[in-house]
């Protein structure tokens, strides 16, 4: 896709990454174009509505110790996959730098998984969920 003139601020190929807790999109911006490269999605963990909860005698629902399972292992796996994909795209020469937008917790985890040589290529980070925005709006936020 051709970028509007006011958004053509990428003289060198730049990887743009947006994520939420389950999906990631990868774009390549360079010159006047924006190209969709890749995407990662993991299946959400499906839990039964009744899992770990019981109804007390007065009719209220009370959570048991297993009701609020910690989501850390799933997030770690996902953020590691995202970081590995960023490293691969940078090392293969698709881009000279990367800009990442994600929820603050996910962004922190991605940065923690990035290799040192790739961390040096991070041009900017945005601690926001931009996954519901279209490509042009994502670029506007990432260059501001």
TrEMBL record:
| Renumbered residue ranges of the record's region Disordered | 53-78
Q: Determine the domain of life of the protein's source.
A: Bacteria
Residue ranges, compositional bias (Basic and acidic residues)? 67-78
Name of this protein: Host attachment protein
InterPro entries reported in the protein's UniProt record: Host_attachment_protein
């Amino acid at each position: 896709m051709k970028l509007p003139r006011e958004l053509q601020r990428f003289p060198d190929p730049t990887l743009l990454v947006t994520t939420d807790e389950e999906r990631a999109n990868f774009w390549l911006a360079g010159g006047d174009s924006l190209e969709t490269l890749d995407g990662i999605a993991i299946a959400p963990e499906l839990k039964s509505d009744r899992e770990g909860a019981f109804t007390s005698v007065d009719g209220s629902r009370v959570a048991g110790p297993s009701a609020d399972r910690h989501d850390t292992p799933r997030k770690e796996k996902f953020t590691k996959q995202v970081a590995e994909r960023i490293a691969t795209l940078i090392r293969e020469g698709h881009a000279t730098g990367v800009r990442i937008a994600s929820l603050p917790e996910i962004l922190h985890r991605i940065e923690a998984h990035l290799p040192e040589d790739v961390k040096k290529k991070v041009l900017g980070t945005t601690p926001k969920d931009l996954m519901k925005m279209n490509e042009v709006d994502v670029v506007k936020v990432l260059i501001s």
